[in-house]
Amino acid sequence: MLNDTQMIEVLHQHRVRPSIHRLAVLDYVANRRTHPTADEVFSTIAVDFPTVSRTTVYNSLHTLVEAGVLRELDIESTSTRYDLALQLPHSHFRCSCCGKIFDMQLPAGLENIVMPGFKVDATNLFFAGLCPECASKSTDN
Ligand SMILES: [Zn+2]
Ligand SMILES: [Zn+2]
Known about the structure:
The protein has 141 residues and is α+β, with helices and mostly antiparallel strands. The protein folds into two domains: 4-84, Orthogonal Bundle (Arc Repressor Mutant, subunit A), CATH 1.10.10; 91-140, Dna Ligase, domain 1. The chain contains five helices and five strands, in the order ααααβββββα. The chain has helices at 4-13, 20-32, 38-48, 54-66, 132-140; strands at residues 70-73, 81-84, 91-95, 101-104, 126-129. Helix 2 (20-32) packs across helix 3 and helix 3 (38-48) crosses helix 4 (54-66). The relative contact order is 0.13.
């Protein structure tokens, strides 16, 4: 969780001017931890900022990704999802029933499978299946 002061500090560290919309975007992605799509970010922020345009939200997301504060997750072919970049590397689990995305640890020793001489910039590992809630529903049937 990042409070307002920490978020402003993070933006300063990454040389991003902390506009009110960028803070709202960062707050939503960093603190809700739902790995939202751009559309989800927009519709939520539009509740608090009725005058905000879709373009402003999309531009804010783009700026934060470019600055390395957020990262894009290509888990689904249909939409890009956003995650806080400033956290330990982790993998994701996507529930094929409810569509929620959960953080998972990376398996230990993952670095050992990279062949010598290769320099890793990013690791994207994701699992698909049913979350506990959906799994229990499907066995109830
Ligand atoms: Zn589910
Ligand atoms: Zn994540």
